[in-house]
Structures are given as structure tokens and as C-alpha cells.
């Protein structure tokens, strides 16, 4: 014979549907009875037992009906207004209907019952019958609604966070995509001129170009080992050298300890790309990456023409602004980035903090 199991959710539903109403009614009855006995000097244990049983039975029936109507009222509000509407206007409307529901039930059931028991209806009976159940119903409302509104608040926060995350991911993809067109144009232009001068060199450039595209298009995991990013930069630098002036003096230094540390891809590319784009004067470019106290430090320097052309790069260029925005999104409070003209050229330094 198969065994049946009861989930915690089902147990919770059974409690609120079948066990809570009589407990609620018992608390209401005990409070009213205590107040009446205190005022009148009666003792409920001295009453005939059948009267107490009748009182409890009537109170249980009332509590089942009232709790069912109360839960229906809350479901009606949930259907009428969205769950994320946590305004005080909604709470006031709900409290008004809770008050109205209490007045209807109390005067339709409890008041007539009290009028035909014991010594009939007294003014304090009317006050107790209309006050005590209302107070407990407000407490019940507060417990139920606090749980509902808390869930709605958390769900709204999660949805807002998801929307923000999706927006940031879209912005990151857009910023990263802005690097590609310029790179593609330069690479294809280089290969085009190599075809007339050195076919073998053009083939090597196509091979390196394909590796760069493969990295950009297919190997874009969330993060990559920094050694993989450095290998990509090395291919990019070699491809750029083929189209650079023979006067170019290039110095590269990559720390061999940079290996499995995880970085987001294509952060270093705009700095290297700009150095090749704007190099002039002494035609010197220096590129270095090292591991310092657990942090990755990347630096690019290049000489610039003298006098400086009016259209020369500034530290407010689009590429650098895009890089700053990506760093703010990917490494909030975990990076330092500086870029600007120096006495002999232009310098950019980026530090990714891991400690």
C-alpha cells in the first residue's frame, strides 16, 4: 500500500483552514467571558455545563464563518489591487472593510445570542461583543497582511534587482561591442596592404586575426584567466606591429606570475589600441602587466607627436569613457584607473584590486 506524505505547505494550509478558527473563537470567547465575569461577579464554572457547551459551540460556528469571510475579503482585495500596491490608502480601505465585516457578523450572530442567554443583553454586553472580536480581528489582519506585504515587498525588490541587472548586462554588451568595429577596420586595412607586398605575412596576419575574432566572438565567458587575456593582447600587438612604422620602439613586459587570476575580458584592449592609434614623436610604446600584492597592475605609455595635433586623443576620449563605465559596472570600488598626458607622451594605468 503506497505511503502518503504531507508537505509543510499542506500542513500549514490545514492548520489555518481547520484548526485556527476554533482556536480564534476560543480566545475571543475566553476574553469576553473574563471581562463579563469581572464586571458582573459571575463565575463561569458555576453556570450549568450545558450553557457553557452551547456558548462554545456557537462561538466555534461563528469563528469558522467569520474566518472564512475574512479570508475571502482578503482574497478579494488581492484580486482588486496588485500585490505590489503597499500604499497606506489600500491599508485604510482594507481596515474599513474589516471593521464593516466585524460589525455585520458580531451584530448578526453574537449580539442576538447574548440577548437570549444568562440575564439578557446589558450595555456592557453590547460593548464587549462589538469591541473584543474587533480587536482580535485587527491583530489577525496585522499578522496575515504583514506576511503578504513582506512577500510582495521582497518580490518587488527581486524584480527591480533583476531589471537593474539586465539593464547593466545590456549596457556592458553595448560598451564592449564598441571596441570591435575600430579593431576590425584596422586589421582588415592592414591585411589589404600586405597582400600587395608580402602574401606570406598577410596569411600570418589572417591567422592571428582569426584567433582574435575567435576570442572575441566565442570565448567570452563571464571571466577568463588573465593569462588568456594576455595571450589575446600579444596577438593583437603583433598584428598592430605589422602596420606600424619601422621607427616604432615597442617594449612589453608581462609578469609570468599572471596566470589563473580571473579578469573580465577586453578591459586592457582599449588602452593598447589607443597607444598604437596615437603614437608619434619618438614612436615609443611601453606595455606592462604585473602582479603586485595580489592586485593586477596594467600600464600603457606612448609618445605623442610634437606639436600635438588638435584631433589628438585626450583623457576624455570615448574609448576611455567606455572603459571607465565598464570598470564601474564590473569592479565597483575594486579598481583604480588614471589616464592623461605626461611630459613626454600619454600614460594610462589600471589596477584591479583582489585583496
From TrEMBL:
Keywords: Kinase, Membrane, Transferase, Transmembrane, Transmembrane helix
Cross-referenced InterPro entries: Bact_2-comp_sensor_kinase (IPR050640), HATPase_C_sf (IPR036890), Sig_transdc_His_kin_internal (IPR010559)
Transmembrane residue ranges: 18-36, 56-74, 95-116, 122-143
GO CC annotation, single: membrane
Domain Signal transduction histidine kinase internal region positions: 170-248
Keyword Membrane part of the UniProt annotation: yes
UniProt keyword annotation of Cytoplasm present: no
Recorded GO MF terms: phosphorelay sensor kinase activity
Top-rank lineage group of the source organism: Bacteria
The protein, known as: Histidine kinase
Amino acid at each position: 500500500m503506497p505511503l502518503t506524505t504531507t508537505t509543510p505547505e499542506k500542513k500549514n494550509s490545514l492548520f489555518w483552514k481547520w484548526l485556527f478558527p476554533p482556536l480564534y473563537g476560543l480566545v475571543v470567547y475566553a476574553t469576553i467571558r473574563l471581562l463579563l465575569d469581572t464586571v458582573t461577579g459571575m463565575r463561569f464554572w458555576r453556570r450549568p455545563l450545558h450553557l457553557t457547551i452551547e456558548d462554545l459551540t456557537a462561538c466555534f460556528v461563528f469563528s469558522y464563518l467569520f474566518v472564512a469571510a475574512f479570508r475571502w475579503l482578503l482574497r478579494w482585495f488581492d484580486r482588486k489591487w496588485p500585490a505590489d500596491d503597499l500604499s497606506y490608502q489600500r491599508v485604510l480601505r482594507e481596515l474599513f472593510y474589516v471593521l464593516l465585516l466585524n460589525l455585520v457578523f458580531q451584530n448578526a450572530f453574537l449580539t442576538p445570542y447574548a440577548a437570549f442567554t444568562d440575564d439578557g443583553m446589558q450595555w456592557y454586553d453590547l460593548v464587549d461583543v462589538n469591541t473584543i472580536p474587533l480587536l482580535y480581528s485587527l491583530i489577525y489582519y496585522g499578522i496575515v497582511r504583514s506576511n503578504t506585504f513582506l512577500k510582495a515587498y521582497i518580490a518587488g525588490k527581486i524584480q527591480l534587482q533583476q531589471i537593474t541587472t539586465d539593464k547593466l548586462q545590456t549596457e556592458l554588451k553595448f560598451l564592449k561591442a564598441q571596441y570591435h568595429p575600430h579593431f576590425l577596420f584596422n586589421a582588415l586595412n592592414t591585411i589589404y596592404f600586405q597582400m600587395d607586398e608580402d602574401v606570406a605575412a598577410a596569411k600570418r596576419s589572417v591567422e592571428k586575426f582569426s584567433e582574435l575574432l575567435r576570442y572575441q566572438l566565442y570565448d567570452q565567458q563571464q571571466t577568463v584567466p588573465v593569462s588568456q587575456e594576455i595571450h589575446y593582447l600579444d596577438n593583437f600587438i603583433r598584428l598592430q606591429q605589422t602596420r606600424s612604422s619601422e621607427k616604432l620602439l615597442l617594449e612589453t613586459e608581462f609578469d609570468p606570475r599572471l596566470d589563473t587570476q580571473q579578469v573580465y575580458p577586453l578591459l586592457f584592449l582599449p588602452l593598447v589600441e589607443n597607444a598604437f592609434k596615437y603614437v608619434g614623436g619618438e614612436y615609443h610604446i611601453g606595455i606592462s602587466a604585473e602582479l603586485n600584492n595580489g592586485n593586477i597592475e596594467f600600464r600603457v605609455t606612448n609618445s605623442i607627436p610634437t606639436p600635438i595635433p588638435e584631433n589628438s586623443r585626450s583623457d576624455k576620449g570615448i574609448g576611455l569613457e567606455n572603459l571607465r563605465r565598464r570598470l564601474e559596472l564590473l569592479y565597483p570600488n575594486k579598481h583604480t584607473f588614471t589616464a592623461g598626458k605626461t611630459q613626454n607622451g600619454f600614460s594610462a594605468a589600471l589596477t584591479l584590486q583582489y585583496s
